[in-house]
Amino acid sequence: MKRKRNKASDAAWDLKRRSNPKRRAYMIAYLKAYRSKNAVRLAAQQKDHYIKNRARVVARIGKWQSENPEKMKAYRAKSAPKDRERTKKWMLLNPERCMQNHKRYYSQNKDGFLKRNYIRRVRVRNQCIDLRGIKKFMQIQKAKAFCVCYYCKKQVPGSEIHFDHMVPIVNGGPHSVANLCVSCPTCNLSKGKKSLAAWSPGGQTLLPI
User: Which domains does the chain possess?
Assistant: First the structure.
């Protein structure tokens, strides 16, 4: 005769098994080996499940993210370097798709782009100090074969460097040589409008200016 299942006792028994260190270590090793052996099949199943249940999956993920902001913040901080490298590699391998994405995003947000560019030009003009010196500084740096990023200390070809305002223009920083530094594209784009106190590359500690 088949035993009638009792959900409460089954749950208690399962919890007891999970709390056993030896059993837990065995299950972790077993699942790791199983996932490694069946990686292709599991990835296909996961993709198929996502396609069939996309709305529900997205809603569930969104709900979890809104309920766990601190965990999401820690996860993004941990995965940011890998994400940047993966994005950079994808952009190098798919320049045409990257350009199409940029054009599509620009066409969908053209008014916002024009407004931000106008505001930035006004701020730069109002806070500009020694424009001739700034142009000369940029020309000298771009003429170099390689430059060193002020933030992460990586070498960057002179043709690919960015110039960043250490104190952002939007936060009242002047458009001057004293406030400009040579930056790699990754650091400049990730820093954005943040101050040095609120942003640091690769765990470095930078003193605010």
Answer: 12-67 (no CATH), 130-203 (1.10.30.50)
